[in-house]
Design brief:
Helix 1 crosses helix 2 (22-29) and helix 2 (22-29) crosses helix 3. The protein starts with a helix and ends in an 18-residue tail after the last strand. The chain has a four-stranded antiparallel β-sheet. The radius of gyration is 20 Å and the shape is elongated. It is built from five helices and four strands; from the N terminus they run αααβαββαβ. It has helices at 5-16, 22-29, 33-45, 78-89, 115-124, and strands at residues 65-73, 94-99, 106-112, 132-139. The chain is 35% helix and 19% strand. The chain has two domains: 5-54, Winged helix-like DNA-binding domain superfamily/Winged helix DNA-binding domain (Arc Repressor Mutant, subunit A), CATH 1.10.10.10; 58-139, Alpha-Beta Plaits. It is of the alpha+beta class.
């Protein structure tokens, strides 16, 4: 899908605050409500906008620890990769999972209450998935940056 400067402006504004009214959004991007709505709908239909969500402070709900887990699996067949990914989808503590190149097969970001909760997660959830060869865990000490997609003029036609 080709995006113009108004589409990019709409995406920037929605990334900052997806609860903007159409009137406020229109003011910010220099369009009236109707063209804003049409552009949003077009971007939703094209899959550019995948959905809307709320950012929750994990510490405020008792999930104070973030762990980055590096995992290697035994088999790299399409079926093994699919099944491992499917199993990760079912684990609520898993926030993100990436199939990567390099020394490990997966980088997985996990939210837990603390070290005992992480041990429970490993024992009751992760290590129940067949085919894990090895894993390495790194506790996040501090989040230095949390950002959204960079929308630059280079994204515009």
């Amino acid at each position: 899908m080709e995006l113009d400067k108004f589409d990019i402006a709409i995406l920037r504004a929605l990334q900052r605050d997806a609860r903007l009214s159409l009137q406020e959004l229109g003011k910010q991007v220099g369009l009236t409500s109707s063209p804003c709505w049409n552009r949003i709908k077009r971007m939703e239909d094209a899959g550019v906008i995948e959905g809307y969500s709320v950012r929750i402070n994990p510490e405020k709900i008792g999930l104070a620890e973030t762990v980055i887990l590096h995992v290697t699996i035994d088999s790299h067949s399409d079926e093994a990769l699919f099944e491992f990914g499917k199993a990760l989808q079912e684990i609520p503590e898993v926030l993100e999972a990436f199939l990567v190149s390099g020394d490990y097969d997966y980088y997985i970001r996990v939210a837990v209450e603390g070290t005992r909760d992480y041990e429970r997660f490993l024992r009751e959830r992760l290590y129940k998935i067949p085919g894990i060869r090895n894993s390495k865990s790194s506790f996040v000490l501090r989040r230095l940056k949390q950002s959204q997609l960079p929308l630059r003029q280079a994204n515009v036609v």
